[in-house]
Amino acid sequence: MNPLKLTNPWVCFAGMTISASVAYICHRLLTEERINEDKEIRTTRQSTIKVKVPKDSIGTVIGRGGENIKRIQNETRCRCHFEDFPDEEGNRNVVIRGTPENILEGKRAIEDIISNGSISVEIQIPVDSVGFVIGRNGETIRSLCEISGAKIIISRSSSKNRAFQSVTIKGSFEQIETAKTLINEKIAESEERTRDRKFYGMNTSFSDADM
């Protein structure tokens, strides 16, 4: 007997159908696995770029105690650090490391600081010295703004600690440091005048008592 004549064509067809189905499923699983691997690679891959920071802007980008560079890292989720050695002109590269999306955000944040040169800090001053820092009709605080080049804004409401009041200073790193120095000088003058008034007031009381 010829074995080919005994073969059931439906069995052969079913076998081919099952094989094709298995092949399709395997292909589908492999494709999905590759897609997931690509997504993981895009998510985890790290890139590095360098941004040149002019020597006059290095302090502003870093901020007092590194507060500006730390803020950029937190907001953009990338790592930033300055190279150890400047170039011949004193400029330094800041190295930004992270995902491509994050390092672009970090680059923009640093370039914004360089171009605008403006940052903002908040300090607390004694409530008793606020009037002295402002001056009559705001003359003193306008003078402090002109000398430092910074914008100084004194909050109208006192902070949680009522002994102090918030002051916001906006400008470059150097401008802010100058403004803080000038404000501290005015606070010292105010406190000295207060001590003098108390001292002379006490002496006047003693003199009246001796009469």
Automatic annotation (TrEMBL):
It holds the Pfam family KH_1. GO terms for biological process: regulation of gene expression. SMART domains: KH. Gene3D superfamilies: K Homology domain, type 1. GO terms for molecular function: RNA binding. InterPro entries: KH_dom (IPR004087), KH_dom_type_1 (IPR004088), KH_dom_type_1_sf (IPR036612). Residues 45-115, 117-188 form the K Homology domain. Keywords: Repeat, RNA-binding. PANTHER family: KH DOMAIN CONTAINING RNA BINDING PROTEIN. This is K Homology domain-containing protein. It comes from Leptotrombidium deliense.
